[in-house]
Design brief:
three-stranded antiparallel sheet, six-stranded mixed sheet, 39% strand, 162 residues, alpha+beta
Length: 162
């Protein structure tokens, strides 16, 4: 009897890591790329997590309140600042929802660097301001390569950009 119990316990312990990894939490990604006048950030946020953060279903159909609410949320939770703390203006914001197996809100944000601005800092707390387990992986696109820059998870909300 003890031997059967020991074998059962050993089996459970051996399979536990696989069970724990079976349902990974969706994360956001941010890919930044320098432009001659500033930078572009391509952001992907899991729709299920964003809906929890917004407290409502997300819809971008038409110019209605859904699109405006998402745009306000994005402008509140994603920004770039210079070393002196001045905000880089957000010149362009494009949004679309991918409706595949894991729906995502995909964003393209174009930030203009003020004249002489150096050492920008990304501030990102979309979703992770409410869901502590949520995180964003941040990459820098250099040519065709993605270079990992870091991970933003509460309480960390800022990351220096190259």
């Amino acid at each position: 009897m003890i031997r059967k119990l020991a074998i059962a316990c050993a089996f459970m312990i051996a399979t536990l890591p696989g069970l724990l990894n079976a349902h990974s939490m969706p994360n956001s990604t941010v890919v930044v790329e320098a432009t001659p006048t500033g930078l572009i950030a391509k952001v992907s946020i899991p729709l299920s997590e964003l809906e929890v953060a917004l407290g409502a279903p997300v819809s971008l159909e038409g110019p209605g309140p859904g699109r405006a609410a998402v745009e306000t949320y994005v402008r509140t939770h994603i920004s770039v600042t210079a070393a002196d703390g001045k905000s880089w203006p957000l010149n362009q914001l494009q949004m679309e929802i991918s409706n595949d197996n894991h729906p995502m809100l995909n964003l393209s944000l174009s930030f203009a660097g003020p004249p002489g601005a150096r050492k920008p800092t990304l501030r990102y707390d979309a979703v992770n301001h409410l869901i502590a387990s949520h995180y964003a992986l941040v990459y820098h696109r250099v040519g065709g390569q993605l270079v990992p820059l870091g991970r933003l998870q509460s309480p960390a909300t800022t990351l220096a950009l190259p």
